[in-house]
Amino acid sequence: MPSAICGILKSPFDIIADKFRGYIGMTMDMHERPDEVMAAVEAMMPHMLAIAKASADPARILPVSIWMHRGCVPFINPQQFDRYFWPTLKPIIEELWADGHQTLFYAEGKWHHHWDRFLELPEGSIIMHCDRDDVFAAKKKFGGTAINPSKSPAHPMNTFLLDLRLLRQRIRGRRGSAGRALGRASDAHLGGRGRGVLCV
């Protein structure tokens, strides 16, 4: 059984906010020197793409993972997301997809404010793990079959929503190379490229 992921990606915004300026520093910078923030975030883009490609699965079966946290409300507001976070992450996801790599969005926190932006991505290019969002609302928004192995016991409805028949079919390969199960049962995803977003 292979691992669940292969490859690593962080958003350029998160690298600056986490590793260079800190969250408080970045929050102040977005108000006091927005142009410098944008220049710094844009400068990180080629490095983040290079790391993701270098660490990605050469067989293009396992997705590249991205842990997303600083880009959601309440850390930044939707306007800041649209200005700094998304324009510097979206092209990386698109480039990975053009090279045959899906990206696993490990969406820590609540990301429903940005679901419309995620739908701008190429069809099938991401797998989305809902942490604290309403998995039923995510399924309605994105379509398809949703599995949500949320790590939070405080959200019992976010535990398991799964069409076992479809999962069995995909594990058995009836949908070709797109079907696969990854890692632990809680990390299983319904692979394939038929839907825009898979909510995992």
Explain this structure to me?
By secondary structure, the protein is of the alpha/beta class. The protein has one domain. 42% of the residues lie in helices and 10% in strands. A five-stranded parallel sheet has the order 1-2-3-4-5. β2 (64-68), α4 (78-98) and β3 (103-107) form a beta-alpha-beta unit. α2 (22-32) packs across α3 (34-55) and α3 packs parallel to α4 (78-98). The protein is globular, with a radius of gyration of 17 Å. The model is unreliable at 145-167 and 173-200 (pLDDT under 50).
Quick summary:
The chain is 42% helix and 10% strand. The protein has 200 residues and is an alpha/beta fold.
Fill in the keyword field for this structure.
7 helices, 5 strands, 5-stranded parallel beta sheet, 200 residues, alpha/beta
Cα Rg: 17 Å
- Judging from the principal axes of the Cα atoms, what is the shape? globular
**Beta-strand share of residues:** 5-15%
One letter per element, helices H and strands E, the order comes to: EHHHEHEHEHHE
Q: How would you state the average pLDDT, rounded? A: 76
Q: How many domains make up the coordinates?
A: 1
Report the major sheet. 5 strands, parallel
Secondary structure blueprint with pairings:
Blueprint: E1 8-9, H1 12-20, H2 22-32, H3 34-55, E2 64-68, H4 78-98, E3 103-107, H5 115-118, E4 126-130, H6 135-142, H7 164-171, E5 197-199
Parallel strand pairs: 1-2, 2-3, 3-4, 4-5
Helix pairs in contact: 1-2, 1-3, 2-3, 3-4
